[in-house]
Amino acid sequence: MKLLGELAVPIIIAFVMVYSLRRGTDVFGGMTEGAKDGLKTVIGILPALITLLPCIYMLRASGAVDALCSLLSPILARLGIPAETVPLMLLRPLSGSGALAVGSDIIKSSGADSFAGRCAAVMLGSTETTFYVIAVYFGAAGIKNSRHAIPAALIADLTGFLAAAFFVRLFWG
Amino acid sequence: MLLFNYIIVLMVVFSIVFGALNGNLTALSAAAVAGAKDAVTLSLSLCGMICLWCGVMELMRRSGLSGKLSRLLRPMLAKLYPTAAKDPETMDALSSNVSANLLGLGNAATPAGIKAAVGLKRLSGRASASDELCLLVVMNSASIQLLPVTVASLRASFGASAPFDILPAVWLSSLLSVSAGIFAAKLLARFTRP
Hints:
The complex is a heterodimer of chains A (173) and B (194).
Chain A: H1 2-22, H2 27-61, H3 64-79, H4 86-91, H5 96-110, H6 115-126, H7 130-141, H8 149-172
Helix pairs in contact in A: 2-5, 5-6, 6-8
Chain B: H1 2-22, H2 25-63, H3 65-80, H4 82-85, H5 88-103, H6 106-124, H7 131-141, H8 149-157, H9 167-188
């Protein structure tokens, strides 16, 4: 299973390139054009990270993050979730760049290959910015009454968090 | 967005209050400097992989590979969205939204998703969100991305031995999360007035 994850990137790159070549698509032109778009994405993330990371680092340096984590850790321990991921779970549905900033802070301070660091990465990879998605889609469609969309989406997020901790424990526990 | 403004201001205010209480005040300015510096180094280290992946995704789009995936998904989606299945235009937008999400084509997923949302609203003819529109939003707010490249590069930049080894865990967690979302949407739909 872990090998599959490691091989995914080279296999996908090779597959897409061979397929494109056979279809007569300009491989180099397409890759470089896409990379140019990627630069725009990175430039879009940078100002948000510059704003958010100092706030998050200050909060951690003050001891507030540790206090919040140790406050919630007895409940979370029962669910198998590492307390270090609390800030990530709180911010994940609200802000994509905020979650990226908090996630990088957790991965940095706990270690990329630690239980908490891996959990944070899996949580980040298996959930989305719920409230942003809801605002954009319902806003565009002109919907005022969102009915059960928010609770159902939050149930999905919560399941994602629990599952992340469960599978990281299962694979590396 | 308003809520988020309060959150970041509260973070800074709390850090000063807690810092004063814990006697950590001197660490705060070093933390702010380190945060700003890390933002730049982190963006730089993520830049290569994000750009490479955007290149691969552009190639998927140009070669028609993402269109192919979108056609493959259509029969399965027609079962989840019976009303949308009757309208080819909405179904088109819906399947390209889901396939773009799977491939991580965020820039293509949102416009297609919005088009599908507008189509679903039109088909339902109601002011409140129809069951299928709620389902669309739930599926978009649960990540179904096959390759979370940004997260893997994040791990790589902090020294992970095998940055992509989390993929199977991500896939299984996403699968459970999306299934729970779909199940919750179907169940809760009975209790909310359309």
